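Aim 2 progress update. The chain analyzed this quarter is reproduced below.
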Amino acid sequence: MAKIINEPAIVKAAGNKEKIIREFFGAVNSGDKDVSIAIMSSPGGWLEPGQKPEFDEYTVVIKGELHVKTIDKEFDIKARQAVLIKKGEWVQYSTPHPDGAHYVSVCLPAFTPDIVHRDE
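Predicted C-alpha coordinates:
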Protein backbone atom coordinates (compact mmCIF):
# COMPACT_ATOMS: atom_id res chain seq x y z
CA MET A 1 0.00 0.00 0.00
CA ALA A 2 1.32 3.45 -0.91
CA LYS A 3 2.35 5.74 1.93
CA ILE A 4 2.22 9.49 1.30
CA ILE A 5 4.41 11.77 3.43
CA ASN A 6 2.90 15.25 3.33
CA GLU A 7 5.81 16.97 5.05
CA PRO A 8 9.01 16.07 6.85
CA ALA A 9 9.56 16.19 10.58
CA ILE A 10 12.25 18.57 11.83
CA VAL A 11 14.67 16.55 13.97
CA LYS A 12 17.13 18.08 16.42
CA ALA A 13 20.73 17.68 15.28
CA ALA A 14 23.94 17.27 17.24
CA GLY A 15 26.80 19.69 16.78
CA ASN A 16 28.20 23.08 17.61
CA LYS A 17 25.77 25.01 15.35
CA GLU A 18 22.14 24.55 14.35
CA LYS A 19 21.76 22.05 11.52
CA ILE A 20 18.31 21.38 10.07
CA ILE A 21 17.28 17.76 9.53
CA ARG A 22 14.08 17.22 7.55
CA GLU A 23 13.18 13.56 7.98
CA PHE A 24 10.71 12.17 5.46
CA PHE A 25 10.98 8.50 6.37
CA GLY A 26 12.37 7.18 9.63
CA ALA A 27 11.69 6.54 13.30
CA VAL A 28 10.40 10.07 13.99
CA ASN A 29 8.23 10.99 10.99
CA SER A 30 6.88 7.74 9.59
CA GLY A 31 7.69 5.16 12.25
CA ASP A 32 9.99 3.26 9.88
CA LYS A 33 12.69 1.20 11.57
CA ASP A 34 14.27 -0.22 8.40
CA VAL A 35 15.31 3.03 6.71
CA SER A 36 15.55 6.75 7.31
CA ILE A 37 15.65 9.31 4.51
CA ALA A 38 16.32 12.94 5.36
CA ILE A 39 17.43 16.20 3.78
CA MET A 40 20.13 17.97 5.79
CA SER A 41 21.11 21.64 5.78
CA SER A 42 24.20 22.47 7.80
CA PRO A 43 25.74 25.94 8.12
CA GLY A 44 29.37 26.85 7.51
CA GLY A 45 31.49 25.99 10.53
CA TRP A 46 29.18 23.18 11.73
CA LEU A 47 30.89 20.21 13.41
CA GLU A 48 29.24 17.20 15.04
CA PRO A 49 30.77 14.73 17.49
CA GLY A 50 32.36 11.62 16.03
CA GLN A 51 30.18 8.52 15.96
CA LYS A 52 30.32 4.78 15.36
CA PRO A 53 26.78 3.96 14.17
CA GLU A 54 25.02 0.62 13.84
CA PHE A 55 23.71 1.57 10.38
CA ASP A 56 25.07 2.12 6.87
CA GLU A 57 24.81 5.79 5.90
CA TYR A 58 24.54 6.82 2.26
CA THR A 59 25.06 10.57 1.73
CA VAL A 60 24.58 12.55 -1.49
CA VAL A 61 25.70 16.18 -1.48
CA ILE A 62 23.35 18.43 -3.44
CA LYS A 63 24.99 21.80 -2.75
CA GLY A 64 28.11 22.91 -0.92
CA GLU A 65 30.70 20.63 0.61
CA LEU A 66 30.67 18.04 3.40
CA HIS A 67 33.91 17.20 5.20
CA VAL A 68 34.18 13.56 6.26
CA LYS A 69 36.76 12.26 8.71
CA THR A 70 37.29 8.54 9.38
CA ILE A 71 39.95 6.70 11.35
CA ASP A 72 42.02 6.26 8.17
CA LYS A 73 41.52 9.49 6.22
CA GLU A 74 39.75 12.81 5.68
CA PHE A 75 38.09 13.97 2.49
CA ASP A 76 35.62 16.52 1.12
CA ILE A 77 32.44 15.46 -0.65
CA LYS A 78 31.30 18.17 -3.06
CA ALA A 79 28.00 18.75 -4.87
CA ARG A 80 27.09 15.81 -7.15
CA GLN A 81 29.32 13.45 -5.15
CA ALA A 82 28.34 10.82 -2.60
CA VAL A 83 29.86 8.78 0.20
CA LEU A 84 28.94 5.53 1.96
CA ILE A 85 29.98 5.00 5.57
CA LYS A 86 29.47 1.37 6.63
CA LYS A 87 28.03 0.46 10.00
CA GLY A 88 30.62 0.14 12.75
CA GLU A 89 32.99 2.64 11.07
CA TRP A 90 33.93 5.70 13.14
CA VAL A 91 33.07 8.92 11.30
CA GLN A 92 32.83 12.65 11.96
CA TYR A 93 30.98 15.04 9.64
CA SER A 94 31.46 18.80 9.36
CA THR A 95 30.88 21.68 6.98
CA PRO A 96 33.89 23.99 7.30
CA HIS A 97 33.14 25.84 4.04
CA PRO A 98 31.40 29.20 4.75
CA ASP A 99 28.41 28.26 2.56
CA GLY A 100 27.73 25.02 4.47
CA ALA A 101 26.11 22.04 2.76
CA HIS A 102 22.75 20.71 1.60
CA TYR A 103 22.62 16.93 1.35
CA VAL A 104 20.46 13.80 1.49
CA SER A 105 21.15 11.05 3.99
CA VAL A 106 19.80 7.49 3.87
CA CYS A 107 20.40 5.22 6.87
CA LEU A 108 19.88 1.43 6.85
CA PRO A 109 18.48 0.54 9.36
CA ALA A 110 16.85 3.81 10.37
CA PHE A 111 18.76 6.35 12.43
CA THR A 112 17.89 6.44 16.13
CA PRO A 113 19.86 8.15 18.90
CA ASP A 114 20.46 4.85 20.70
CA ILE A 115 22.34 3.24 17.77
CA VAL A 116 24.46 6.20 16.59
CA HIS A 117 26.99 5.93 19.46
CA ARG A 118 28.32 9.49 19.46
CA ASP A 119 31.61 10.34 21.16
CA GLU A 120 31.30 11.88 24.62
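The chain has a mean pLDDT of 97. The CA atoms of residues 49 and 119 lie 6 Å apart. These observations will guide the mutagenesis experiments scheduled for the next reporting period.
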